[in-house]
Amino acid sequence: MVLVCAALAFLVLLLITILIFRDGFSALLEIGLGNFLFGTEWIPSAGKYGISTFILNSVFLTLGTLALAAPLGVGCAIFLAEVAPYRVRQAVRPATDLLVGIPSVVYGLVGMTLLCPLIADLSGGGSGHCLLAAIIVVTIMVLPTVVSISEDSLRAVPREYKEGALALGATHWQVIRKVMLPAARPGIVSALILGMGRAIGEALAAYMVIGNAFAMIHSPLDPARTLTSHIVGEIPEIAVGSLQFRALFATGIVLLVIILAFNSIGFITRRRS
Amino acid sequence: MASRIKKSLMFPLAALIILGLTSVSGCGGGGDGGSEVALTGTITESGSTSVKPLAEALAAAFMDKYPKVKIEIGGGGSGKGISDCAAGISDIGAVSRPPKIGEADLIYYPIARDAVAIVVNEDNSVTELTTEQVAKIYTGDITKWSEVGWANGGDITVYCREAGSGTLDCFEHGVLREIGKKEADITPNAERYDSNAGMQIAVQADASAIGFVSLGYVEGLKVLKLDGIECTIETCKSGDYPVLRRLAFVSKACPDEPTKAFINFCRSEEGQAIAAEKGYVPLT
Q1: What ipTM was estimated for this complex?
Q2: How confident is the prediction for chain A on average, in pLDDT?
Q3: Residue B284 belongs to a domain
């Protein structure tokens, strides 16, 4: 019975992958892998299907999220694991776990109605829909994951390490920096990789705040279009089966490969710990 | 290329001529006399967001008349309307553009006409643009509000819909084509939104914005005169306002009884009166 369920789950995954490849692969052949991956323009009516700007924007979004989520998430984890009184931890930890379950559309709505107008005010005009808005929204979305995994791995550091260092006269901060963090590093790294995987795959919340313009961005305050927001934006209106439709599936293949790579790296680092 | 464009225009045109004046009938169905009372079932509809407010009003009126029929109205865009209907996910697809070559072969029933209004933020001091100015703003040839009469307007933020949108299709034909440009010529800096409501909210919040929406979504926005012509139901009816398109339902060749009755209701005098009341332009 268990075997049947497991086989079924695997089969569904396999079917999804086959479906994406079936539609996407023919488009890749028709467009040419080089034109597809390195082309800078997406103008279907002119036969141009280049997704390099979308790939770059997805990378920017992911790196931006990492730059914000790493210090905030790890800092929060250190606070919860080492500094916070028991009662504070009892209140904060369930709250972070709860945040993981909030649907992304809610984050997108809050970003659209609060964050974007704020950015527009501060940056002097425009819509406020931009890469920075998406980075902030996605950071808030991945923080709970980063915090809870990092905190768990900090707590998993053997007590003796900490007590030994304290006995040698190290201050609490020295213990955290020189002993706890290095010992918990594999766990923290895999937490960050998981967070980045989520950032690159996030579609709806990003679509609602990122502006989705086709042009290459010059600053984080420009509207951008990522791999996911591109698929979300175009797929509802496109003629099913057309080259443009299949090219969106090919975009899905690229996304699938990137996320697989991320998860594999995360898996390997976790295995090593 | 030219012949392809011609073809893609010819097909819906022909469909219109053939179907435009007839109602849904045939398909081996019997007399309509006694069947009305027994009308029961669920009708599902999905597709164009431009059609959605109209479809909701028509559905409410129809369900009042036939309490045993339940109509579910969804959104998703014209492309989704066609693919859902073809796949049997919905009984009726809503479209604000004619089906394209390569899309499923469905039957096309116009239910109303609708204008695409050129809109700006209420703080904008511009009240009127020419078609050429609007087109040039969208192609990126005009980038500052000061070039079109708003000295302190700063940079123009261009808002656009996603490719395949019926509203964008109408905008392309009514505005961009007037100066020989196409959808592909729209500036890459244009921000893209996936629905009329998304565009409406964005333009409401941005003083530097220009956008285009279905006439049903202009609340809280300033509608610009185009070449001196206001965008109202009267100017659309008279044919003076140029950016106009047909809203339609599509269905498979032989829809079931409730679906058939609903489409006929939408196209009846009663249905057309509801369309006019909701701010759409009736078919005739």
Answers
A1: 0.81
A2: 90
A3: no
Domain of A116, in residue numbers: 22-40+47-272
B148 shares its domain with B77: no
Looking at residue B57, which CATH number applies to its domain?
A: 3.40.190.10
Interchain contact, B194 vs A240, CB within 8 Å:
no
Total count of domains within chain B: 2
- Tokens read off for A67: 């730059």
**Does A249 fall in a domain?**
yes
Residue A160 lies in a domain: yes
Specify the number of domains making up chain A. 1
Rounded Cα distance between A145 and A201, Å, is 15
Give residue-wise pLDDT tens across range B62-97.
999 999 999 999 888 888 899 899 988 999 999 988
Residue A7 lies in a domain: no
Q: Which residues of B touch A239 (CB under 8 A)?
A: 79, 82-83, 100, 102-103, 164
Residues B184, A232: C-beta atoms closer than 8 Å: no
Residue A160 and residue B226: Cα distance in Å, rounded? 78
Answer yes or no: is A132 within a domain.
Answer: yes
Match 């109202």 to its residue by tokens.
B232
Most A CBs within 10 Å: which of B194, B199, B210, as the mutation test of the A interface? B194
Whether residue B198 is found in the same domain as residue B223? yes
Three-class DSSP labels, chain A? CHHHHHHHHHHHHHHHHHHHHHHHHHHHHHHCHHHHHHCCCEEHHHCEECCHHHHHHHHHHHHHHHHHHHHHHHHHHHHHHHHCCHHHHHHHHHHHHHHCCCCHHHHHHHHHHHHHHHHHHHCCCCCCCCHHHHHHHHHHHHHHHHHHHHHHHHHCCCHHHHHHHHHCCCCHHHHHHHHHHHHHHHHHHHHHHHHHHHHHHCCHHHHHHHECCCCCCCCCCCCECCHHHHHHHHHHHCCCCCHHHHHHHHHHHHHHHHHHHHHHHHHHHHHHC
Strands, E assignment, B83-227: 92-95, 107-120, 128-129, 157-161, 191-193, 209-214, 222-223, 225-226
Element (H, E) at B74: strand B69-76
Tell me the shortest Cα–Cα distance from A129 to chain B, in angstroms.
8
Identify the three-state secondary structure at position B5.
helix
Which range is least confidently modeled, A81-85, A260-264, B39-43, B44-48?
A: A260-264
Question: Taking 60 as the threshold, does the pLDDT of residue B2 lie above it?
Answer: no
Q: Do A172 and A262 contact (CB within 8 A), yes or no? A: no
Cβ-Cβ pairs closer than 8 A, A with B, add up to: 97
Contacts of B155 in chain A (CB under 8 A): 125-126
CATH, residue A259: 1.10.3720.10
Residue of B nearest to A218 (CA): B189
Domain that holds residue B34: 11-113+245-277
Q: B273: distance to nearest CA of chain A, Å?
A: 29
Is residue B119, in this structure, part of any structural domain at all? Answer: yes
Would residue B5 count as lying in a domain? no
Q: Is A116 on the interface with B (CB under 8 A)?
A: yes
